[in-house]
Amino acid sequence: MSSPAHLRPRYHFTAADTWMNDPNGLVYAEGVYHLFYQNNPWGSDWGNLSWGHATSRDLTNWEPLPVAIECDEQEWIFSGSVVHDVRNSSGLAPAGRSPLVAVFTSCLIDPDPARARQRQSLAFSVDEGVTWVKYAGNPVLDAGLDHFRDPKVFWFGGDDGHWVMVVVEAEACTVAVYASDDLIAWTLQSRFGPANSAQGAWECPDLFPLTVVGSGEQKWVLVVSVYPGGIAAGSGVQYFVGDFDGARFTPDRLSASEDSTSFDWVDYGRDFYAPATFADAPDERRIMMGWANNWDYARDSPLRPWRSAMTLPRELSLVADEEGLVTLRSAPVVTGGESFDTDVTVSLPVSASRASVLIVSAEPGGAGDRLEVVVDGAGRTVSVDRSHSGDTSCYVDFGAPAWAPLPPGEVCDIRVIIDGCVAEIFVAGGRVTFTMQVFPQAPLRFVATAL
Do β-strands 174-180 and 162-169 pair in parallel, antiparallel, or remain unpaired? Predict the structure, then answer.
């Protein structure tokens, strides 16, 4: 049985009729954005993990392509990254050519417990990502661990620089940093963690530089997904701001509290996980995409035969508050001409005596299935309530609200984008964001406020 057509987003990427989770190998090369993703090519449920593939020239319209790297009887193809090896340091392309190189986790299908279950491997393409060949010398990195995955690789330094891999030792809640000259021989440099949210497994690390808006200071951002242990329960994504010298990441601050509200979160919603940023994006823009789902209920969502969507691409920046605290800010990357179910920006007053509510509903006046955004001036919080958003049966706490500390100010601007089953809310210019799935009986298109 297929899910209603209005639930499939138009501008959030979805697979045609199969399972999808983490974005993989985000890279910009030869004028094309490549999105690879965890995919079961043969079904709507998690399994047979391979790399699906789609491309875009504007980050809005995506062209689905055949499966790029397919699982086999020996291994599933878990998450990883793609780099454009412009120097052909790997030697994987003919002389004068530069390959795209995928660095991914080989998840072994082997009954022998003595064999490492997860190791890092390579595949390469010399035809701009159309076809891929697994490297004959795989694996290139084997730490002898069962849960060692999700390599993010990037070039550090100029012509005399080196490749860096950040990869998780998942159950230890540790990010390991490796270095290489050729993408093949890797040497351990350092480890970071556990830190802040370390209740569950760490996954899908990313590490990148950003310049603080207005100051010109460069900082490095380490992003780590965690499940369980997210701010809104289940899956979540935390980040750390600090410095990186090519071998070791040093955070500027760590929380002294075990309270998750004191940690830095990329998104405060229930459905933002495993994000990655595009390598080599034009003008050094840092553009992120995530998986719009939560492992608490991803396998049980009422979507068939396609399962899950990606978030909109988001451009990231770093901003400092009046006290000098540096945090992430994100803005949706939308080119002209989109037609979402809803794309509205409203400024709500922040009052200590009452709450301000923004309602997006299936019927005029806030009736029918609806999503509510509540600004509580007294508690200095902003929350998103989807308890009446339609079908909430996939998880017992699906309707529980998500909330975040309210940024300073007497007025709060809120942008709500709803596209099929995905709602993305950007608060205070993107200093706080929420990603939430909704499964209404009709599109959520009508906007109302209660002050």
Answer: antiparallel
